[in-house]
Amino acid sequence: MILSYDRRKALKNIGIGATALAMPGLMSLKPRTTHFISLSFDDGFKKSFLKAAEIYEKHQLKGCFNVLATGHLPSFIEPDEYMLKPLLGDFEVWNELKQRGHEVMPHGFKHANLSKMPFVEAQDLIMRCLDYFKQNLRDFDPKEAIFNFPFNASTPELTAWLPTQVKAFRDMGQGFSNGFNPLPHQGQVKLNCAMGGPDNIDERVQQLIDAFLEGPKGWFIFNTHGLGHEGWGPISADFLDQLLGDLKSRPNVEVLPVGVALNTI
């Protein structure tokens, strides 16, 4: 049987649709997308993360949450006054967020600056983190994971080795970063992010996003922590709500979790 051109074209489109349904993020992409934006929430503040998830869901978006493997354990040592143990959630919460469609990724075994320790010690902490996630986060696959460096601090040795274990990693590299990246592409493993603090970062986020949207096409990643007064460099819940509403309305902008953005390749 010889198929007509229109028939072949229709079947091809059905195949494309099926592929898109199988790959998270593809179906929601706007035809004229030129700018991707990912807000990355770190550390694991239970109250803030649940509230942020509600705000994302209000706008039919998914959040990007990066948590510590052991922040919920009695043995966890608070690294500073911004990360108090009673404020941190556990894997029951992280599994709930993941079930609701949000992204949950590793942020370290503990909140240690891996750039300030011997390579072998840092390597061990990363592997212990990934192993803990495999055991406690449903359907976690290290090969599809984004490792988010604590303090956004890495070393050349770690960033050369880490892609053998995970899909990509997020840090600030050496020095200041404005969080601008090229659009997701094959082989992209290093993701730059911007950050700010220790006080409220609403103004900084808005300024950087405005600058990003005025520039050429690309991908902006910003690392925040909690909402309101939780964490280092928190963002306001009302500001997040207004920002997501504004970005959602723009025909050329997609707001996506980091891992989902990479899956749009």
Concise summary:
With 265 residues, this protein is an alpha/beta fold.
Could you characterize the architecture of this molecule?
It is a single chain. With 265 residues, the chain is α/β, with parallel strands linked by helices. The chain folds into 2 domains: 1-30; 32-262, TIM Barrel (Alpha-Beta Barrel), CATH 3.20.20.370. The protein contains 8 helices and 10 strands. The strands form 2 sheets. Strands 1, 2, 3, 6, 8, 9 and 10 form a 7-stranded mixed sheet that branches. It is globular, with a radius of gyration of 19 Å.
Features:
alpha/beta; disordered N terminus; 36% helix; 8 helices; seven-stranded mixed sheet; 2 domains; 265 residues
Largest sheet: 7 strands, mixed
What CATH architecture label of the largest domain applies? Alpha-Beta Barrel
CATH topology description of the largest domain? TIM Barrel
User: Structural class from helices and strands?
Assistant: alpha/beta
Quaternary form:
single chain
- Helices and strands, in N-to-C order? HEHEHEHEHEEEEHEHEH
What's the level 1 CATH class of the largest domain? Answer: Alpha Beta
Uncertain stretches of 5 or more adjacent residues: 1-27
Strand portion, in percent? 15-25%
Percent of residues in helices: 25-40%
CATH homology-level superfamily of the largest domain: Glycoside hydrolase/deacetylase
User: Averaged pLDDT, please?
Assistant: 89
DSSP helical segment count: 8
- Ends apart, CA distance between termini: 35 Å
How many domains would you count in the coordinates? 2
C-alpha Rg (nearest Å)? 19 Å
| Gross geometry | globular
Number of E-state strands = 10
